Amino acid sequence: MAAENTLYGLGVRDALHTALRKRGIDPVARDPWFYPTPDQYIGLLRSASLVPLRVSLHPRATPFADLAGWIRLFGGKFLEGIKSEDEPELVNEVVASCRESGACHWDEEKKLWYLDYVRLRIIAVKAQDMTTESEAPESGGD
Q: Which CATH architecture has domain 2-129?
C-alpha cells in the first residue's frame, strides 16, 4: 500500500526516501508507514462494509530532543541492511536534510525538533447497523 501513497512533504520520510535512493536502494520497499488521506481511508472503510460517519485530521507539532535517535527508533525498517559503519552517515544526512529544508522545525533556543504528527480520527459503523442511507462523512480539523 505504501507505493500508492504520495509523499506529502513529510519531512523525515521524504529525507529517508531521498537518502536511500541516492544509495541505489528502493525506499518504497522498506517504508512501513501508511499515511492515508481521509478519502483513502473512507474507501478502505467502505470496502470493509463500514459506513464512515465522521473523518477528521488533527495536526500537531510534536517535540523531540534527538532527531537521529527518533529516526533509528521509528525508522528502523529504513535502516535494515545498511552497514553499521554507513548508518551514521545516512542518519546524519537525513537530519541535515530536515534542518536545511525546514521540513522539521529545529528550535535552537529550546534545543528541540518539532515533527508534524497528524492523527486521523474516524467514527464508522457496520453497514447493516445503519437504518437509513448514510450521507458523505463529515470531515474537519476539530
A: 3-Layer(aba) Sandwich (3.40)
Please provide residue 95's backbone torsions phi and psi, each rounded to the nearest 5 degrees.
Answer: -60, -45
> Domain coordinates of the chain in residue numbers?
2-129
13-71 tens-digit pLDDT: 999 999 999 999 999 999 999 888 899 999 999 999 999 999 999 888 889 999 999 99
| Angle in degrees, 0-180, between the axes of helices 87-101 and 67-74, rounded to the nearest 10 | 120
Residues 51/134, Cβ–Cβ less than 8 Å: yes
Of 84, 105, 87, nearest in space to 20 by CA: 87
Q: What is the value of pTM for the model shown?
A: 0.74
Distance, in Å, from the CA atom of 106 to the CA atom of 63, rounded to the nearest integer, reads 9
For the chain, list the strands marked E by DSSP: 50-64, 105-107, 112-126, 138-140
